[in-house]
Design goal:
Helix 9 packs antiparallel against helix 10. It is elongated and about 135 Å long. By secondary structure, it is an all-alpha fold. The protein has 23 helices and no strands. The termini are far apart.
């Protein structure tokens, strides 16, 4: 699979893939062990030096970035098998031996090994030879703290790199890696990126050079101060290292340094620790040395953050303890309030009994009022004022009941007793009283104006739209205009009486007026005259 990692351009995407790859270390290691076991089996079954050389070379390639000590063993085995083969095979085996000696930090031995074959080299392997030699000097330059020696080694490394470029095949990955290194040294960062990026896109994920190319691409962005792109390519490089189980790596450590600088202490610590574990496992002297310089700094930051977290935890525990004490105090207060509310409930029951008696008295009063209205049929003005006052008084009575109920709700809420709150919040009593009140109103009104419904429907174009529910005498629309007939024309007062919003009353009035026969504005005046003839 090629270039699946280029699907996104966001560092967080690659970081999540990197963390996923870290979690799959065991799976990648199993695949690595299977390959190594297969090659070892082939070595055992090989019958000629040529076959053994091939399989020892493959084992060396598997181990060189995985476990340096084992790679060193197989490099020597490969050289031993090559001694009965061609000079080219011998030289290739010695170059491999020098390369693994470099990883192990044995730079002098590596240079001695390379020097022993330099005079006899064939042109086709000179490119790899000089590239290996530049790696030796590069390792020496990174390892030493002496400024003069470092300059000397860097110069030698650059000279051998240029020699490698002259002999490497122009279409090989190693050629472009070496050439990009030269361009970077010449501060041609953009050009280095432009020649190396197409190579990366063509490099399969199974190629060990993929991680190296991605790392060099990250360097082109580091030197151009593009931190986001640098982190992205370091993550891509580290993913490749992990998938191919390359323990001799650099990208994960460098990414950890950047994340540490950005305050991601835990992630930086985990990446650095993993890099150190890999370097120790591989026995890479240079990588272990590089990480050992950075680890104390990251470790100190990590411990400082842990101490900060511990302090926060202590503060949290203290806060929880204080809160617990507060809650205990609240529970004690609630218990006391429950007792008070129990007494209040008894008072509410007594009040309800008194209200029931008052309601019975009101019913008796309604009967007497109806009788009085019949007697005062010829005095229309007095009758209307009397009924209007009666309605106002009933509305005030219901409002008082609501205010009393609200007061009980406040008391219950202050005590936070759910059962009591549920009981006190119930509007069943009010709804029942309202229903009976409206029934009494409808009954009283229709007795006073027995032809009201008939005459009202005669004033509109669609009388069938006025529907009175079964068991009721007036619909909401009829009740609104009944109040208007009694002289209560203010929508706010009507809304207060019927427990609707003013806008609802306004809509009802408008809808009925729109159905009026004749002039719309005269409709309510006609309503006011309903019953005058019968009276």
């Amino acid at each position: 699979m090629v270039n699946s990692v280029l699907a996104q351009d966001n560092f967080e995407y690659y970081k999540s893939k990197l963390d996923l790859s870290l979690s799959k270390t065991g799976l990648y290691l199993q695949n690595k062990d299977r390959s190594i076991s297969h090659f070892k089996k082939q070595v055992r079954e090989a019958s000629t030096s040529s076959e053994r050389y091939v399989w020892y070379k493959k084992l060396y390639d598997e181990y060189k970035s995985f476990q340096s000590d084992s790679a060193f063993v197989y490099a020597k085995q490969s050289l031993q098998s090559a001694r009965s083969l061609t000079k080219s095979d011998i030289h290739n085996a010695q170059i491999d031996l020098a390369a693994i000696l470099t990883t192990l930090g044995n730079y002098d031995q590596a240079l001695e090994t390379l020097a022993s074959i330099e005079a006899e080299l064939q042109p086709d392997i000179k490119g790899v030879f000089y590239w290996t030699k530049q790696n030796v000097y590069n390792g020496l330059a990174n390892y030493t703290n002496d400024i003069d020696l470092k300059k000397k080694y860097v110069a030698a490394s650059n000279a051998n790199r240029d020699q490698a470029i002259a002999f490497l095949a122009p279409n090989s990955s190693l050629y472009y890696i070496a050439l990009s290194g030269k361009l970077i040294a010449q501060k041609e960062y953009k050009q280095a990126y432009e020649i190396l990026y197409p190579v990366f896109k063509k490099t399969p994920t199974s190629d060990p050079d993929r991680a190296v190319i991605a790392y060099i691409l990250s360097e082109t962005f580091r030197l151009r101060k593009s931190r986001h792109e640098e982190k992205k390519w370091l993550a891509i490089s580290a993913i490749s290292d992990l998938e191919l189980v390359k323990k001799e790596n650099i990208s994960l450590r460098k990414l950890a340094i950047l994340l540490h600088e950005e305050g991601e202490i835990e992630t930086a610590y985990e990446y650095t620790k993993r890099s150190l574990d890999d370097a120790v496992f591989c026995n890479s002297k240079l990588r272990t040395y590089e990480i050992s310089k950075m680890l104390p700094i990251i470790n100190e930051s990590y411990e400082a953050k842990n101490k900060s977290n511990q302090s926060q935890l202590i503060v949290f525990l203290i806060s929880v303890s204080v809160l617990s004490l507060f809650l205990i105090g609240v529970l004690i207060l609630l218990f006391k309030q429950m007792k008070k509310l129990a007494r209040a409930q008894k008072n509410v029951e007594l009040a309800n009994n008194q209200l029931s008696k008052l309601n019975q008295q009101l019913q008796g009063f309604n009967s007497k009022l109806n009788q009085t209205n019949l007697e005062l049929a010829e005095t229309s003005l007095l009758k209307e004022i009397y009924i209007g006052r009666y309605m106002d008084q009933c509305s005030i009575y219901i409002r008082k009941m609501e205010e009393y109920s609200q007061k009980l709700k406040v008391m219950a809420t202050a005590g936070k007793v759910n059962d009591l709150i549920s009981t006190v919040k119930s509007k069943a009593f009010i709804d029942k009283e309202l229903k009976e009140f409206y029934q009494q109103f409808d009954l009283t009104f229709t007795e006073l104006y027995p032809t009201f419904v008939y005459e009202f429907k005669a004033l509109i174009n669609d009388p069938d739209s006025i529907i009175v529910k079964k068991g009721e005498l007036l619909s909401p629309e009829l009740r609104i205009f009944a109040l208007i007939r009694l002289g209560i024309k203010d929508s706010a007062k009507i809304a207060d009486f019927l427990r609707y919003s003013p806008s609802t009353i306004y809509n009802y009035r408008s809808q009925i007026k729109n159905k009026a026969k004749g002039i719309r504005e005269e409709f309510e005046m006609k309503v006011m005259r309903i019953g005058t003839k019968s009276e």
